[in-house]
Amino acid sequence: MKKTFQALIALVTLVFLSFPSFAAPIELHYWHGHTGKLESIINEIANRWNAKQDESKLIPTSKGSYEDILAAFIAAYRAGEHPHMVQVYDAGAAIMVAQVKNGVVYPFEDMAAEHGVNFNKDDYIPGIRNFYADSDGKMIGIPFNSSTCLMYANMDILEAAGVTEIPKTYEEFEGIAQQIKDAGYIPMLQSHSPWIWTENFFSRHNLLMTDGNNGYDAVPTTTLFADTPEFITHWEKVKEWKDKGWYDYKGRAWGDNQAPFIAGEAAFWLGSAASFSGMKGVVPNFSVNHIPYWSSMTGGKAYPTFIGGAANWILSGKSDEEYSALMKLAEYMTTPEIQLFYHNMSGYAAVTYSATELANAIGFYNASPYHQAVGEQLSLTGSTIPGGYRAGNWPQIREVIYENVHKMLSGEISVEQGWKNTDAGAAKLLAQFAKTL
Amino acid sequence: MKKVQFSSYFTQYFFVAPQLAIILIFLYLPIVQTFTDAFTTQDAFGFGRYFSGFDNFIFSMSDATYLRAFKFTIIFICVITFFSCSIGLLLAVQANNVIHGKSYYKTLLIWPYAIAPAVVGVTANYFFSERLGILYSFFHNIWGFNWYDNIYDAYIYVFIAATWKQISANFIFFLAGLQTIQKSIIEASMIDCKSNFRRFWTITFPLLMPTTFFLIIINITYAFFDTLGIIDTTTIGAPSGETKTLVFKAYIDGFRGLDIGSAGAQSIIMMLIVLVITVFQFRFIEGRIHYN
């Protein structure tokens, strides 16, 4: 009996020794704000990465909306249980860049200098690169899902209304709106008043939105909404359209404004480049176009819009091995193949030149012309304003905008008064943020 | 009389310790944390902390949206307490009189009690959605109901959602209250008075006062604090912030706006309000209630 036992132990030891020792892969936790179809695309990228190598394992977790994820990750950071990488959206960029000095965020360019292998800064499209960079142009966030606002058009409705050309400017839109309305459709809808018709109105018309050069030169103290006559004119027009039935306002929720377009009741809908993935195969015959502008305000010139969407940010407090694995992952996520896959599936822009070149080389845009709109609009040139804004408490300022837009559109207060109130509310929030710097 | 005593201090503390630990960790620590946050200015990550006195209080209270939320919360509390109590009472009295299938009625009426406020909100969403909602189209056909646009319609939306959830809680307590009333009193009153209605208001209802008083406090705290999930899943404060309650605003400022100091200050103000309401109720109303 005793002998059998000894033999067993020897056997077990031998079996264990004969196997090469496997190190468990480094787990890389990634928190993101994608849900639904976009989440499955992230999971697919993670699967590909995990199948490709076994040094690290990417574990993506969806934390809900962009707002939810920011709150979740800050709570986790304060508890010391933050992930390696987190996706934070455009309105949170000021918060994240400000946290470099406190050692919360590990700047991407620093990580690339210490652990990078194939990092090539110049491959990133400058407009996208600079949006998530500090004022010296040092890359802080890793550009990943870059979108912008675009105009979706229902081609069947336009045909039914006898409209042959998609409007490039708001003047052209005014010329055909009544025609669409007479045909029994809603001419226009818009899904995010702070983002599309506020922030991107300023970039589209080459106007400054806050003092301190949009916050790039100095900490901003006030927004310039009521002080910008072009902006006031635009919103007076919007109110006029609403009263004429050329534009329908469905409240503040994104989906409520998008729903009539999906149901085939509206001709134009202003939304995000990333809405493409959800719309494809659902709306029968639609096209994706640049967002309109007032040619009377820009002298007929089209300026680029801001980058929307989000970037990935590396958080501090992890080991060198983890950062080296993260850097390889970051390089993988910006390879032309993955970028093109993501671009194709989601509608987000490709963030590198090499991905765009690959797309051109394989004739991708001939097969899918609508994917081109986002890149084209973002790479327009000639702007004299910065390619973004750095203003703290911006998520709350967006709340103030939402509330005042509603009051203006319901006729409770005048457009000018509404934006004056917004400026006042925003100034208080900017001052509150400045106190913490 | 025999005196019951523990042999040592250790034993009693040993038995109390788990309770105390729970209270300490989940009640007192957060309160201390709230107080420190309310009197400091800090960024979302907790950096740049410094003592700032009443700055956060002044910042919150000087905000027009805060005063509006205050006003709405008062209306909200009154409406919900009134309707959920009276409907709960009505149903309890009816269910108490039912002879056949009593337990089926009771079970069905108690069910919604188990539903979380956020789920109530999501459910209400289906009824009030512009594209799918049965209640939306019903009201819309009558007076052009549109909660996206009209403040009062938005009020109706959240009132219905929040009241519906609380009716079953009130129902249970009223039903229990009705069953504690002695049969002999009811029988005696039946001889003296024929009118059901009068008997209810002169005999049954006064005997239910302790239950009613208890439920009023429960409903006020419910409307004050527990409706956060309902607001967040129905109007999200729409049309333009008019349906934001104080708790919802503190939540939005703290967890969306990441302004922890201001959210802390708002929490303390709410704590004071509830304290005042409760003290007032116990001092002035309870004295008029007869417990048997």
**Uncertain stretches of 5 or more adjacent residues of chain A:** none
Number of separate strands of chain A = 9
Helix/strand/pairing category of chain A: alpha/beta
Run of helices and strands of chain A: HEHEHEHHHEEHHEHHHHEHEHEHHHHHHH
Look at the structure and give the mean pLDDT of chain A: 90
Please name the fourth-level CATH homologous superfamily of the largest domain in chain A: Periplasmic binding protein-like II
CATH class bucket of the largest domain in chain A: Alpha Beta
Q: Could you tell me how far the N terminus lies from the C terminus of chain A, measured between alpha carbons in angstroms?
A: 74 Å
Strand content of chain B: under 5%
In terms of structural class, how would the helical and strand content of chain B be classed? Answer: mainly alpha
CATH class of chain B: Mainly Alpha
CATH topology of chain B: MetI-like fold
Written account of the structure:
The complex is a heterodimer of chains A (437) and B (292). Chain A folds into 2 domains: 26-147 and 308-378, 3-Layer(aba) Sandwich (D-Maltodextrin-Binding Protein, domain 2); 149-305 and 393-434, D-Maltodextrin-Binding Protein, domain 2. In chain A, 49% of the residues lie in helices and 12% in strands. Chain A is built from 21 helices and 9 strands. The longest helix of chain A is centred in the C-terminal third of the chain and has 20 residues, at 415-434. Chain A has helices at residues 2-18, 37-52, 66-78, 93-98, 108-115, 126-131, 155-161, 170-182, 195-204, 211-214, 229-244, 254-262, 276-279, 295-298, 320-333, 336-346, 353-361, 364-367, 372-378, 394-409, 415-434; strands spanning 26-32, 56-62, 85-89, 142-147, 149-154, 186-190, 266-272, 286-289, 308-314. In chain A, helix 5 (108-115) crosses helix 15, helix 7 (155-161) crosses helix 8 (170-182) and helix 20 (394-409) runs antiparallel to helix 21. Chain A has a 5-stranded mixed beta sheet with strand order 2-1-3-9-4. In chain A, strands 6-7-5-8 form a 4-stranded mixed beta sheet. Chain A is an alpha/beta fold and 437 residues long. By secondary structure, chain B is mostly helical. Chain B has one domain (65-288): MetI-like (MetI-like fold). Helix content of chain B is 74%, strand content 1%. Chain B has helices at residues 9-38, 55-61, 64-97, 102-110, 117-128, 134-143, 151-180, 183-192, 196-207, 209-226, 228-233, 246-256, 260-285; strands at residues 40-41, 50-51. In chain B, strands 1-2 form a two-stranded antiparallel ribbon. In chain B, helix 3 (64-97) runs parallel beside helix 7 (151-180), helix 3 crosses helix 10 and helix 7 (151-180) packs antiparallel against helix 10 (209-226). The mean pLDDT of chain B is 88. The interface between A and B is medium-sized, with 39 and 29 residues.
